[in-house]
């Protein structure tokens, strides 16, 4: 027959040590979970910003660029062509030519841009200086084309 020679004091010390180690492991797990949560939030924010930058890169590349009149018309078609009354785009496109200074927020006047008898006509070979305006949150509010 075998006898257990561990005294009651030793048993209490083993239980206390086991409880202490378990508490330390749980605390480390909770700390690691908090760090992982913060890392996830930061990664999600960066991916969202990168997605917005990629989405707006076609418009942002226009800022300060010299573009032709045909590029201006194509730009208006691309970004405002899907909008018609009563729907308006959140972005406006302003075009200043020798004859007119006009702002567009829908695709209703696109046909007039190619009609050389209309005052909205944009000459395809004319050069325009583009500028992009953002709000305080970095969202593109308007694009302005000024004939040079």
Number of strands: 5
**Class by SSE composition:** alpha+beta
The biggest beta sheet is recorded as:
5 strands, mixed
Could you give the distance between the termini?
106 Å
Dominant shape: rod-shaped
Enumerate the spans where pLDDT stays under 50 for 5 or more consecutive residues. none
How are strands sequenced across the largest beta sheet? 1-4-5-2-3
Helix content: 40-55%
Annotation keywords:
148 residues, 5-stranded mixed β-sheet, single chain, alpha+beta, rod-shaped, 5 strands, 19% strand
Describe the protein.
It is a single chain. The protein is an alpha+beta fold and 148 residues long. The chain has 2 domains: 1-55; 62-147, no CATH class. Helices cover 47% and strands 19% of the residues. It contains 4 helices and 5 strands. It has helices spanning 8-55, 57-60, 69-80, 110-114, and strands at 66-68, 92-96, 101-104, 127-134, 140-147. A 5-stranded mixed β-sheet has the order 1-4-5-2-3. A hairpin with a 5-residue loop joins strand 4 (127-134) and strand 5. It starts with 7 loop residues before the first helix and ends with a strand. The relative contact order is 0.13.
């Amino acid at each position: 027959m075998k006898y257990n020679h561990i005294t009651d004091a030793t048993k209490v010390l083993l239980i206390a040590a086991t409880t202490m180690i378990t508490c330390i492991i749980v605390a480390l797990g909770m700390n690691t979970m908090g760090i992982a949560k913060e890392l996830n939030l930061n990664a999600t924010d960066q991916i969202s910003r990168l997605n917005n930058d990629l989405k707006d890169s076609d418009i942002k590349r226009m800022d300060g660029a010299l573009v032709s009149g045909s590029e201006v018309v194509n730009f208006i078609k691309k970004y405002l062509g899907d909008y018609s009354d009563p729907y308006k785009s959140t972005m406006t496109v302003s075009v200043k030519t020798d004859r007119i200074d006009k702002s567009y927020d829908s695709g209703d006047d696109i046909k007039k841009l190619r009609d050389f008898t209309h005052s909205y006509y944009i000459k395809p070979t004319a050069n325009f200086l583009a500028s992009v305006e953002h709000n305080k949150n970095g969202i593109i509010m308007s694009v302005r084309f000024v004939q040079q």
